[in-house]
Amino acid sequence: MRPFFSLTSLVIVTLALGAAPRLWNFALAALNDPKWLPALAADSPVHFEPAAEGCATIVGLMLPEAIRSVENAHGRPFARAPIVGVYGSYDNYAKANGTGDPRIAAVALSGRVVLSPTLCGAESARLAPVLTHELSHAHFFGWRGLWAERPPSWFVEGLAVMISGGAGAEEMSEEEARARIRDGHVLVMSEQGVWRDFSSIAFAEERGDNFARFDLVYRQRLAFRQAAMFVAWLKAQDQAGFAELLRGLEEGKGFASAFAAAFRADLPTLSRNYLATIGG
Q: pTM for this one?
């Protein structure tokens, strides 16, 4: 398969392999671009492994509405039309998703959305919302330069969860998330911070009922739900300011400055105001 990065970029990545296994996965994804898989039609952005053709057909039917939802929420079209790869093989999916992990349901990477075989089988009920969630990521980062400061993960994930109607936070209700906030288990929502994996998600205080007993899936869903709730609150408080924030971030501005310019207040102040509405 042909790479979707330049040969020079691939050589630079390859030279770094010994020190950075994460870059190896990124390079492997470059060599396994879903764009070179068969497409549903000559002009279709949906590409698939032959074993997943039926699922790809369903994705093709879902895609226009998912794109409309994302573009409406973000306030403008995609910078580049997204490519969606639908996989029948977990091994090939792991090679294409940039993480090397076949257990992740879907990933957005370099304008591509790659979907795991599980979304064509055991987790097919999640297909539409997960597709929308990942398209939100593809849209957001499609407008940003490669070297732009990355916004905090809580905002990026919270936005995608909100737009997709809860994908990524399934089985975690807002009621339970509020109860955890009142217990003191509050997601850290700072101006910087990228979650390298779910174990790196930080909560401000872990007390009371021994929060450490919960597994990573629970913590991830709680984090995604709390993030989505705060993002939705910000939007409800000032829709024009929220749109200004999105545009600033998508144009590569730093999060702290874009946030302050959009809302005329800093993040710590508004996060305290939000938590006070819950009792956290």
A: 0.89
